[in-house]
What we know:
The protein is built from 17 helices and 29 strands. The longest helix has 16 residues, at 180-195. The strands form nine sheets. Strands 5-4-3-6-11 form a five-stranded antiparallel β-sheet. The model is unreliable at 582-589 and 598-605 (pLDDT under 50). Helix content is 28%, strand content 22%. The protein is globular, with a radius of gyration of 30 Å. By secondary structure, the protein is α+β, with helices and mostly antiparallel strands. Helix 4 runs antiparallel to helix 11.
Amino acid sequence: MTISYKWLSEYLPEQVEPEKLSKILTAVGLEVESMERFESVKGGLQGLVIGEVLECEQHPNADKLKLTKVSIGEASPLQIVCGAANVEKGQKVVVATIGSTIYPVSGDPLTMKAAKIRGIESQGMICAEDEIGLGSSHEGIMVLDGNAKVGTSAAEYFHPYEDIIFEIGLTPNRMDAMSHLGVAKDVCAYLSYHNKKELRAVTPFKNAFKTDNSSLPIKVTIENKEACQRYAGVTISGVTVKESPEWLKNRLVAIGQRPINNIVDITNYILYETGQPLHAFDAEAISGNQVIVKTLPSETTFVTLDGKERKLTDQDLMICNATEGMCIAGVFGGATSGVKDSTSKIFLESAWFNPASIRKTSFRHGLRTEAASRFEKGVDISNVVHVLKRAALLIKEVAGGEISSDIVDIYPEPKDKTEVAIKYHYLKKLSGKNYHPDAVKKILNSLGFEIIKEGIDELRISVPYSKPDISLPADIVEEILRIDGLDNVEFPGSINITPAIDENSLKESLKEKISTYLVGLGFNEILTNSITNSAYFNEEVLSGTVKMINSLSADLDVMRPSMVETGLEAIAYNANRKVRKEIKRVDDFSFFLKISNPKIATTWT
Length: 605
């Protein structure tokens, strides 16, 4: 899971330094695997300044070069030789001074040095946009607005976006932390408990939603109430589909997402903000002004957003209009119903789909999307409408338009909250720590739990909808331990273990000696996954392989019939990264093939 420091900080009531935040995240079970600086313009334009061309004359020794004098706000102007045809006296330009490093769009970084060009000393460089990462044009130098102040740093003038990006290792049960808001709630709970003060995450949900008119109502019907327990939608008309504003693009690019257009980008922004997937339909594609949530007959063909025709089963939940399917629910959109450049009316969907149904459909069709990964873990069913309103207001702000219907919210059988009872002696037994009842209640309240009933040695707790994985007393113990800090788990004074007796020790010893001998001859051991990609093999080989019914991913779906393919994967991975340790000689590779698959080795050699 990728988390933006600046984005996360918007939901924290007080500023937390990145290093401290990293320690807090790891302490609450969201292990920080990396923390890196992100720059929308590589190098951050450091060392580049705004200058003014005071003089521009023909270079005495070259027809295509100009000799310029450029002021950068210092006592003496710089003499710079420039090859751009469009350089002229009076222009405001970007100057790379001696010692600064520029990062071209293509090519290696270049550090400026004083140099003689055709016999004339040049004290820097007047830059084109592609030479400093601000664009792709190389038709000439960048000419800035005449109001640009000489001597201003380029970073101050252009304001390139900078951020710090955390990569956190998320366990499968932590759906509540698959968003910036969810992570912020954990951080606030930790700070509240350890700093002895009440802190709550800053909510992005405002009470400003209102319907502008009712000109575009869409009727919603849920036929499969088990696979879709809640479905909400709203229409917005008069929108303008265009490129997103810089702030929105910066947020998405920083966490590795490619901006598409303002409508789609907002749905993605909301996904990473709240954890709730949304889908925007072109309202003109909804025939009969009806949305029907149902399954279609087996073997029905459906063309998805990537242009592929897929055959559905009668277990695949679909979002349909009056005549046909429009979207594989919670997994992937259709080729004809999505938002296009010409779209002016949209229907915005927010729903809760059955996790098991979504996971099966996702794997069945090999579609591992961000939406599916969240639905299959269970989203917050109580947040469906709040998120929809938040997204609708953002779309009005960014794309214009009017909200042209009331919120349609179909929720046939409202879910009850899960209730869990936990005894204090059980908490002590599992945690190894004697918690005061007030501390337990403080932690649980800060995480959104409600205390229903309190006894001498027992608490009965109502679990928030945002934590669908919690159903057992042990889960409550884990929550308390996380916020107290996993680093604070007490170790006992002694550990008792019973040594195991290995009946196959001779076999393992022989294996170890052979491995040591081969390493001494210069070989390297490769340990690869026993599950591999069926695409590597032809039908004849696949007929004898063991296929995975519930594969981890579309690329890992069969047990390997030989070690060649997975070995080559490891070799290619390292070779592409200029790490050439696995195969050092041709005879090494020949040996690898022989022990992996003698039939292939004979052909290869």
